[in-house]
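TASK: fixed-backbone design
INPUT:
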């Protein structure tokens, strides 16, 4: 005679059955292939760049030769370009995975303006790949202050203690719904096994969008825009994370706020540098 109780007791536990399905799913190929986020062509499954086809990956404008202080593309890697020698920035070092140009200029705006978080995860993975595969020279302090340049900078740039995403003002954050720098920093921190500390820096003053201003107006626009929190001096070396570095004015203002709070070294790690 059929017994509902015996039937239930004879069944596998739900958790065991669910685990079996999960394990099976890991061994089976996906039902639908992923497509390149740039050209929409099918991509082979797996790998660190499964959302990018081989042709688009080959076309990426990697920034492999740059100024160590501002990440400006250069014919050969250098400790400081002419501008950084004349006007040392508050950043000790800067790294950019890419030069801003095709086809990256079709991918970054989708993260920044169109809520494409999949693009952000892809870009963060490519940033991690770039930063782990290269060892840029480190600007050497010769005793002339925290930003001084040494004559023979041969040491590799050290890793920061923490990553700090460049914050949006709370009003801009409410309008956009997300912070693109944080969306890059979160997977980047996981990939590099570095602590993520968005609480160390706040944007305390709303500013005019930088894209509408020239270099001098950008610097003026950002005065007093950032404030470090009381936890910031606990770290001697931090790296600011942002999507694009143009003149560097925003990153410089953030670095100055952290330095005033007592952080000895502030670097910038960005996805792309505008040449």
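OUTPUT:
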């Amino acid at each position: 005679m059929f017994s509902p109780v015996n039937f239930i007791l004879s069944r596998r536990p739900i958790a065991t059955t669910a685990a079996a399905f999960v394990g099976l799913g890991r061994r089976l190929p996906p039902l639908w292939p992923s497509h390149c986020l740039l050209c929409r062509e099918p991509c082979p499954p797996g790998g660190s760049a499964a959302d990018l086809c081989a042709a688009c990956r080959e076309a990426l404008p990697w920034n492999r030769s740059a100024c160590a202080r501002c990440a400006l593309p250069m014919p050969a890697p250098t400790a400081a370009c002419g501008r950084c020698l004349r006007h040392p920035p508050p950043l000790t070092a800067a790294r950019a995975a890419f030069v801003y140009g095709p086809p990256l200029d079709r991918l970054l705006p989708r993260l920044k303006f169109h809520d494409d978080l999949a693009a952000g995860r892809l870009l963060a993975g490519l940033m991690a790949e770039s930063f782990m595969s290269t060892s840029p020279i480190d600007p050497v302090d010769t005793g002339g202050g925290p930003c001084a340049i040494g004559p023979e900078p041969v040491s590799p740039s050290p890793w920061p203690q923490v990553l700090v995403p460049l914050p949006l003002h709370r009003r801009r954050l409410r309008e956009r719904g997300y912070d693109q720098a944080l969306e890059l920093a979160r997977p980047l921190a996981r990939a590099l096994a570095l602590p993520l500390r968005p609480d160390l820096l706040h944007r305390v003053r709303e500013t005019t969008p930088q894209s509408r201003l020239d270099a001098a107006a950008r610097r003026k626009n950002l005065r007093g825009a950032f404030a470090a929190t009381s936890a910031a001096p606990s770290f001697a070396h931090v790296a600011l994370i942002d999507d694009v570095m143009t003149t560097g004015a925003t990153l410089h203002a953030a670095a100055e706020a952290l330095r005033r709070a007592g952080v000895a070294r502030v670097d910038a790690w960005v996805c792309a540098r505008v040449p």
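COMMENT: The beta strands are 93-99, 162-165, 201-203, 226-228, 237-245, 265-273.
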